[in-house]
Design goal:
Elements (H helix, E strand, L loop, with lengths): L14 H7 L11 H15 L3 H14 L4 H13 L3 H15 L6 H10 L4 H12 L6 H20 L9 E2 L9 E7 L5 E9 L5 E11 L2 E2 L3 E2 L10 E6 L5 E7 L8 E9 L2 E2 L15 E6 L5 E6 L9 E8 L3 E2 L3 E2 L9 E6 L5 E6 L9 E6 L10 E2 L11 E5 L5 E6 L9 E6 L9 E10 L9 E6 L5 E6 L6 E7 L3 E7 L6 E6 L10 E2 L2 E3 L7 E3 L17 H13 L5 E6 L6 H21 L7 E5 L12 H7 L1 E6 L1
Parallel strand pairs: 23-29, 23-30, 32-33
Antiparallel strand pairs: 1-22, 2-3, 3-4, 4-5, 4-6, 7-8, 8-9, 9-10, 11-12, 12-13, 13-14, 13-15, 16-17, 17-18, 18-19, 20-21, 21-22, 23-26, 24-25, 24-27, 27-28, 31-34, 32-34
Helix pairs in contact: 1-2, 2-3, 3-4, 4-5, 5-6, 6-7, 6-8, 7-8
Amino acid sequence: MHSIKLIFLSFCLTSLAFQVGYGQKPKLSSKNKKALGLYEDALVSYNRRLDAEACEQFRKALEEDEKFLEARVTLADILTDLGRYEEAEMNFEKLISQDANFYPKAYLRAAICQLAQSKYGKARLNLEKFITLPKMMPDQKAKAEVMLSKAIFGEETIKHPVPYNPINLGENVNTIHFEYFPSITTDGKTLIFTRNTRDNRGHHQEDFYASQKQGSGWGLAMNVGPPLNTDGNEGAQCISPDGQWIFFTACNRVGGEGSCDIHISRKNKNGWSEPKNPGAPLNSAKWESQPGFSVDGKTLYFASNRAGGKGRMDIWYSVFDNKTGWGEPKNLEQVNTSGDEQSPFIHPDDQTFYFSSDGLPGMGKQDLFYCRKKPDGTWGSPVNIGYPINTENDEQSLIVNANGDTAFISTDKKGGFGALDIYSFALYPEARPQTVTYFKGKITDKETKLPLEATFELVDLATGEIKARSASTPGNGEFLVGLPINRNYGLNVSKDGYLFYSETFELKGSTSAAKPVLKNVEMSPIKAGEKIVLRNIFFDTNKFELKPESNSELEKLNEILSKNPSLKVEISGHTDNAGNKANNKTLSENRAKAVIEFLIKKGIAANRLSPKGYGDEKPIDTNDTEQGRANNRRTEMQIL
């Protein structure tokens, strides 16, 4: 379903090895009969996949004749494929010193071993030599040039390490098994990850586990159970920033589109809904995995080897439409290369994108990168997150918390509990996303106090752009909405049959984490006498011209009146007690009329709308504080 470690598989055994395996008698460099006998025995062992036995027999052949070139190159190739890079490097270097022309590819193979050990300077020298050799195949030269760029990058980058102090999440999360692909909710309270357990027979089982934040640590991770987990394998998941949706990968399920497909489940009062495969075009006959969901509530990023990409594995994205469903996936061309790009993670700030790649200049295999969204909506150039976060090994599946100061990564760092553990670390400032705070609570019916399932829209008041969509959990009404700082937002909560609820979040100018807003929302049924405060309708001081930031709220007001054509309402303006009472009353009435004029232009009948200016006659807060006076300066709608 996905790769934990990508093993470089070589098919570079010399033709001599295969010739001997088929009983032919090639001309070999050794005349030592004992060495030749051991060499042929080693080839037989290798063809039987007895690698350890073959290596030992090749070594014994070299003890008999250290200049037995065929034995040395075959041994070195097998050691490389087994990941025993230090031994393989020693043999390739010995081969080069004995006869560099016998196996010119030894320069390339030695460099592979050296890159795997962070010996970037030595790898660079071997690659520079290899590239200058005559009669080189174009594909080999291209591969060597990519490796050379990594060697040069690694040699320079290792001189300028970034701060990195990974801390194991502890035995409540990590075990002797594999833990990877962490995901976390915007409030930082819930961590969900994939655990791969293996028994003595080699059977492995991938399931989802969840851990809850407890003080400075994490509680005991529990299997999330059905319907998410099954007897099959599930993994490579992400949880939406609002905690309402989980996207994950499952392979070879009945009714699937391909080998591995993305599946979707929604949170409910009992846990999670039965997962669904959204089908085409999101999934294809190829491999789709490693989803990452954006805070806008509609954009899903994922890795796939589907047709039309730039490389072997590319990052794609699909946009959800309420009417037509998931759109045709598009290639994220700004980050993809001819190599593999995987593990997309879009931060809740919707501006910072993290992913892994082996096609960009890096330290070795898969490296972690980040890029920023530009004002036109495209993505800037990828930036390598740096050493020692990136090493000569594979680094994948990095995520960052909402505050932007803490990252989570899965690695096999020495001293852990098992094969792969999840760690957290303080992310250095240059690689951090924009800080995100959150609005969290529960939605209920104002009269019955029963929980409601309602929808949210978070609007950037400066641009009118919807920055996030969300919904409360069916059955319990709980909600979580991320709020990136340094913008002013209008939040609208709506449900058919109820007056909408609005809230304003003034975060413009914030440079650090704002305090989360914890608040329960009571929604009023549509009936005579009910009223709401229109918190996102704005006027300049002592003026009654509607400001552009009011548009999203006015559209919501128009929507509720259009859906309920029998409604007649009063639009009222209110002021604080500062200034002349008569002037305040006139100002408040003119503001109410401005709202009504907007609605009439939208097609709402004038006889359904009644303007009223109350001045400071109906305060809802004290006029002794600035905040209280601000609350009293408001526009309301009441059903008549």
